[in-house]
Amino acid sequence: MSPTKKGRFSWLLKPFSHLIDLSIISFSIFLFEINLNHVYLFVIYAVIFWEAISFFNEFYEVQRHTRLLQIVTLLFRQFVLLAFALYAYIGFFKQPDISRLALGEYILSVFALVSFFKILLFFLLNRYRAVLGGNLRNVVVLGNTEKTRQLIKIFNTKLHFGYSFKKQFDVNDADFSLKKCFDYIIDNNINEVYFSVASLSNKQINKLIDFADNNLRELKFIPDNKDIYSKRLKYEYYDYIPVLSLRNIPIQTPINKFLKRAFDIVFSFLVVVFILSWLTPILAIIIRLESKGPIFFKQSRNGFNYKEFDCYKFRSMTPNENAHMEQATKGDMRITKVGAFIRKTSIDELPQFFNVLFGDMSVVGPRPHMVSHTNMYARKVDKFMVRHFVKPGITGLAQTSGFRGEIETNKDIVNRVKYDIFYIENWSLLLDIKIVVQTFLNAVKGEEKAY
């Protein structure tokens, strides 16, 4: 089974909605005589609180099966908190001359405009899915129970949800096999797989989980009794049918996503300004003096959702045709003298902080592999593709745990994947900081497999 590139159909919707809301908040202030001493300070203050409240409130986490009532609830909760924050501005910045009435009119106007555009976007997107058949996700259902039949009815009747139901697999059919099911999922570009827990054996469920992990398909449970499952599973409701998501990835929650991205930007910016700004020209001279060729080495690697990106390093080898296919080995004759030093101290990896600023990588995460190696390991190593549910990192838990550098045996890559999956499922900002500190200590003392 080969991995598939997983598409995100509506990745522009959240940024677009975000842009509309921030524009309304920023420009509407000039329509009211609030008597602000520093209008731009107020705008910055309002935007910061709007963003903070949005992340805690999950204001932009509107799914295709979200109901209008849920959106209205989000809007009221968002603006009640924002109103408290904006009125607190008066006392916090000691501006008693501000017109409370005008400030209230501003808040109500912003509430009306943001609500209008959010609900309008919600209805337009629903119509786009229902009438034009756009923004669809292909789905299959395994099992033939009352709840699976109800779910299929929802898929077929509530077209505005944007699910294209392709096939139901009845496990009681004489010709049913998971292999036929897997082949159909791959051949028909199925995005999400729903299955009834009661219909499959534990062995079949484990095979289904492994298939979904290795092929980047979203797998969702249809429980018979939602109360018997661990509360760590994520519950969602499609109309009135409970559905459970299998893997809980902490980085994917809005507040954690914001914290990790903020950490990445701040840390990378500091490295670029205070280290790369003076180190790059020095290394450029030394690298060019020893061997002709570019200062930077660019290599295509697989990142988040299996998307390919250009990963940058300081060149540590003489230019060669096999650089994109063959991993460096101990005593590799391609490595230059300065290259050996910068690889031993991990200095060659520093240009990847630009990849972090570009958004292709994170400071900490599973290390990305060459495209050819990714395809090979995806076939050989179970759950290898799970690593692509998050952005790849400059360093990672596997690397600080002794599994960096050359992969000499299958045990090396298997252990690396185990540590990567543990990191994905147990992420915290403190864990990222710990890994960064350990990486620095390892770089200072040098590592045995850094060659």
From TrEMBL:
Membrane topology type: Multi-pass membrane protein
Primary enzyme class: transferase
Record bears the keyword NADP: no
InterPro entries associated with the record: Bact_transf, EPS_sugar_tfrase, Undecaprenyl-P_gluc_Ptfrase
A Pfam family this chain is assigned to: Bac_transf
Chain segments annotated as transmembrane: 12-32, 38-56, 68-90, 106-125, 265-287
Similarity annotation: Belongs to the bacterial sugar transferase family.
Identification of the protein by name: Undecaprenyl-phosphate glucose phosphotransferase
Organism: Aestuariibaculum sediminum
